[in-house]
Amino acid sequence: MIRLNKVSKTYRTDKVETLAVKDIDLHVKRGEFVAMMGPSGCGKSTLLNLIGLLDRPGAGSIEVDGVPITRYRDKQVAKLRNQTFGFIFQSFHLIPDLRVIDNVELPLLYRSISGTERRRLARAALEKVDLGARLDHYPNQLSGGQQQRVAIARAIVGEPQVLLADEPTGNLDSKMGAEVMDILLKLNSEGTTVVMVTHDELEARRVNRIVRVFDGQLVA
Ligand SMILES: Nc1ncnc2c1ncn2[C@@H]1O[C@H](COP(=O)(O)OP(=O)(O)OP(=O)(O)O)[C@@H](O)[C@H]1O
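ok -> structure tokens follow
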């Protein structure tokens, strides 16, 4: 599904050059649930951003369904990203001034879908994460776990093939974190491929593959 071939990524600032990801080969297969683990600063988020086409590699190539995206223009990459991936972040990234339902509709605004259909899809996504009764709330009227579930609804509303989650339970207590994990596992069992960064060994044990990153490289 997603293949990284000898991918490297260097960040350059005025004074420092950081080789964040070094020469990585990684194949994420359709239907897998991959947990990515490793110490702080080892390159996990960089790797997730590369997999999700949010960033381009400095060297190496990335293939989506066998098609190398190296020669794609930024606009083509953006379209492929929007169609293929849903993103979930540690700090939810909801828009505070928008109601729950409007937050979830956001990714659909870039597609040619009528307002009525957008609302129907957003409602269905919120029902999937058990928040069908909170459509008109604002994010700050919800618990952290509920806010992350809204973020999951927003990530799945466009029916992406792959969900990418960067420490999705990092800001939640263990009970809310387990609820979020339950939802991700359920979506995976229904066919969505999931790649998740986590620091939690217990969470990682619930998924079918653990990828360990150290100093920008994968370790066995
Ligand atoms: N935009 C950036 N500009 C410069 N350096 C960066 C940038 N983003 C990340 N880095 C550096 O690249 C390396 C890898 O960072 P990355 O965020 O991928 O690590 P991580 O494993 O996700 O860390 P954490 O678990 O703390 O989130 C680090 O040394 C970091 O300082």
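The pocket of adenosine-5'-triphosphate is lined by residues 11, 13, 18, 20, 38, 40-46 (CB under 6 Å).
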